[in-house]
Amino acid sequence: MTFGTRYVAALAERGRLCVGIDPHASLLLDWGLDDTVAGLERFALSVVEAVAPYCSLVKPQSAFYERFGSAGVAVLERVIAESRDAGALVLLDVKRGDIGSTSQAYADAYLDPRSPLAADAVTVSPFLGFGSLTPFVDTARAHDAGLFVLAATSNKEGPEIQQAVTTDEFGRRTVSNTVLDHLRVLNDGADPLGSFGAVVGATIGGDRGLELAFNGPILAPGYGEQGGTAADIVRIFGAAAPHVAASSSRGVLRAGPDAERMRDAVRRANDELAGLTA
Ligand SMILES: O=c1ccn([C@@H]2O[C@H](COP(=O)(O)O)[C@@H](O)[C@H]2O)c(=O)[nH]1
């Protein structure tokens, strides 16, 4: 079954919140844990046990595991495997992108089921040119996996690059809309939804003129801690709102280490996000 089909089913069954599993050093300390591999493991696997059976997607942020070297990456492998066993889709947030031949190695690492780091989907950066992502696209297709391509990120620095105007095969477009155009082509004809998604922050302001009818999933990070709200999701995404998974990491993790409090945070967010339309 394609990633797009699994995504639609997961959101319908378990709600529209994607829980970020980001073991910040400050959160480990707040939870009474040491900033060590043992603390990382306890934190991350407690989050998986508390929320992965109840939410549609989890999004571990690779950086927080990589900072502990190979032992941290081993914890990330367990987070991926145990979250999938609990029925959540795993979106690995690594924001990779390089020349094509190196992109192939990244794609094999994160999307080929023979890899211990294989996830359902991965975040990628198109800023070496969308064509440099072709190995990710082909590998995702081969393994029914998905991609989320950075289009309009949640941070305030994004517009200087993403709102730049470029002339390409689609005409005169912002960089964000060039990315969305490529996604529309990749997702053409897919039903109920294609597997090639976009990252569009739940915090972006103003009218960016984003063309969001690209028939793919949308990840909206910035919901919660960064200030994005359900009203922002309606404002930013309009008719595309039903395809949005809003992502929150610290907003859920601060409710820990109590498992029931974390699950409550997930329930409340899912209730708030249910049925959002323009
Ligand atoms: O545009 C983007 C893309 C990715 N992120 C990532 O999402 C989480 C946000 O964490 P919060 O604690 O909910 O703020 C983090 O892993 C970022 O790297 C993003 O924020 N914006």
From TrEMBL:
E.C. designation(s)? 4.1.1.23
Give the highest taxon in the source lineage.
Answer: Bacteria
**Matching CDD domains, A to Z?**
OMP_decarboxylase_like
Instruction: Locate the active site.
Output: K95
Pathway assigned in UniProt: Pyrimidine metabolism; UMP biosynthesis via de novo pathway; UMP from orotate: step 2/2
List where the protein spans the membrane: none
Q: What range(s) does the Orotidine 5'-phosphate decarboxylase domain occupy?
A: 16-265
* EC top class, as a word: lyase
Q: Which UniProt keywords apply?
A: Decarboxylase, Lyase, Pyrimidine biosynthesis
Tell me what reaction this enzyme catalyses: orotidine 5'-phosphate + H(+) = UMP + CO2
InterPro entries reported in the protein's UniProt record: Aldolase_TIM, OMPdecase_type-2, OMPdeCOase_dom, RibuloseP-bd_barrel
Pfam families to which the protein is assigned, alphabetical: OMPdecase
NCBIfam families to which the protein is assigned, alphabetical? pyrF_sub2
The entry assigns this protein to a family as follows:
Belongs to the OMP decarboxylase family. Type 2 subfamily.
What name appears for this protein in its UniProt entry? Orotidine 5'-phosphate decarboxylase
Organism per entry: Nocardioides panacisoli
